[in-house]
Write a structure and sequence with these properties.
about 425 residues; alpha/beta; D-Maltodextrin-Binding Protein, domain 2; 3 domains; eight-stranded mixed β-sheet; three-stranded parallel β-sheet; 15 strands; about 15% strand; globular
Length: about 425
């Protein structure tokens, strides 16, 4: 897990010598490799310029949503700002674990309400949190879709119009699947229920919102059928396998698709990303202020600072995922005449109905129309986790062990150093 060493070192000194000076310390808890590190120091300077008060950031990272949640829910950790995924934000709001984000910044512009895309605000409002208004408790940060990274030389894109390509024997042993139970379940159940969706007897939202043992069993049965097809369930190494052409298809997230495509191009390998016709998921991660936060003022200023367009661009370029910023300046920064024309009015507004832009950075309007949000299942999440454990346990074929062994050796030989030079790495968002 990547650490921001200089920031953490200074933070330890600060905490050791100034534990009573908490109002000048901001504790941020974020995904690994999920920010432009230069912004940390820039915020400290900007905050003092705007408020006349000094602040020092203590920056820590996590790799799994549930790790972050446990530290706050059970450990009552006093993080001031954290960045959970949508379904975890749902759970935190419902369980009264968040504080409202005050939009009063004095003379400083409100970059939150004036910068976030209306589409991401719509996604935020779709969280199932009872009578609460989720827009008061969270600010979207990064977002994307789920689909297939694929090798254009070895895979017919027509085959990828369906999630059932996972059962296509042409690609046996060349398929990687993200080690993410919720994301895999959500795609497969939409494929298995495609006829009911088309007939209107069930909606995508119902399939992804309402826990059903029957549906979980259906997905498990399907996944057991493809166990000989899958080379491995991976948290991070699948991208490298695709770049090295050891894999031809990878069920993955759009941000990883963008990174992998760009890396593969450097070595003469052609990769692309596609979302099957049966439907998919759209997700986002967002900033929140936990109820045990101690520096609420600096927390809200930090979130506002991150939403500035120039900072959103920096983070998008470093991380690889799409940012929630929907300003005209954000759109102008990514116009590329070599890319196809598409309608992005859903994200940037009416003036973006015909723009040249990378569809891996911003999905087309047609793709978004067949995507749905995932939701928290509460205590029923356990049956999903149990199912996933059974599927992975039955899928440990020889190739899986061979790849895992090779990865361990490579990591031990120095892959940690190479990761420091990467622009973006995978995050285990939804295990």
């Amino acid at each position: 897990m990547k650490k921001i060493v200089s920031v953490l070192a200074s933070a330890i000194i600060l905490l050791a010598g100034c534990s009573s000076d908490r109002e000048h310390i901001l504790k941020v808890y974020n995904w690994s490799d999920y920010i432009d590190e230069s912004l940390i120091g820039e915020f400290e300077q900007w905050y003092e310029e705007q408020t006349g008060e000094p602040v020092k950031i203590v920056y820590q990272t996590f790799d799994i949503n549930e790790t972050m949640l446990s530290k706050i829910e059970k450990g009552h950790e006093d993080y001031d700002v954290v960045c959970p995924s949508d379904y975890i934000i749902e759970r935190m709001i419902r369980n009264d674990m968040l504080l409202p984000i005050d939009r009063d910044f004095g003379d400083v512009p409100n970059y939150i309400d004036n910068g976030i895309s209306p589409y991401l605000m719509k996604c935020l409002r779709s969280l199932k949190v009872g009578d609460a208004d989720p827009t008061k408790y969270a600010v979207p940060y990064m977002w994307g879709t789920t689909g297939f990274i694929y090798n254009t030389e070895h895979v017919d894109p027509e085959d990828l119009r369906t999630w059932d390509v996972l059962r296509n024997h042409k690609y046996e042993g060349k398929v990687f699947v993200k080690d993410a139970a919720r994301d895999v379940y959500s795609q497969i159940i939409q494929f298995l229920k495609k006829d009911e969706i088309a007939a209107g007897t069930v909606t995508r939202d119902e399939l992804l919102s309402v826990p059903s043992k029957e549906n979980v069993d259906l997905v498990e049965e399907y996944l057991m059928q493809i166990k000989d097809q899958v080379a491995g369930y991976e948290a991070d190494f699948g991208k490298d396998q695709m770049v090295q052409e050891r894999g031809w298809i990878s069920l993955n997230w759009s941000g990883d698709g963008r990174w992998t495509r760009d890396e593969a191009e450097k070595v003469g390998v052609s990769l692309d990303f596609i979302v099957p016709d049966e439907g998919s998921t759209v997700w986002f991660d967002g900033w929140v202020i936990p109820k045990y936060a101690k520096n609420i003022k600096a927390a809200k200023y930090f979130i506002n600072f991150i939403c500035k367009t120039e900072n959103a661009i920096k983070n998008c370029d470093i991380v690889g995922y799409s940012n929630s910023c929907g300003t005209p300046e954000m759109l102008a920064n990514y116009i590329d005449e070599s890319c196809p024309v598409q309608d992005l009015s859903y994200f940037f507004g009416p003036g973006a109905d015909s723009v040249h832009i990378d569809p891996l950075l911003y999905p087309t309007k047609e793709v978004i129309a067949r995507c749905e949000m995932e939701h928290d299942w509460g205590e029923d999440s356990e049956m999903l986790i149990t199912m996933w454990s059974r599927v992975k346990g039955s899928n440990a074929n020889a190739l899986t062990y061979l790849i895992i062994g090779a990865i361990i050796i490579i990591l031990g030989a120095g892959a940690v150093m190479s990761r420091r030079n990467r622009r973006h790495s995978s995050r285990s968002r939804r295990r």
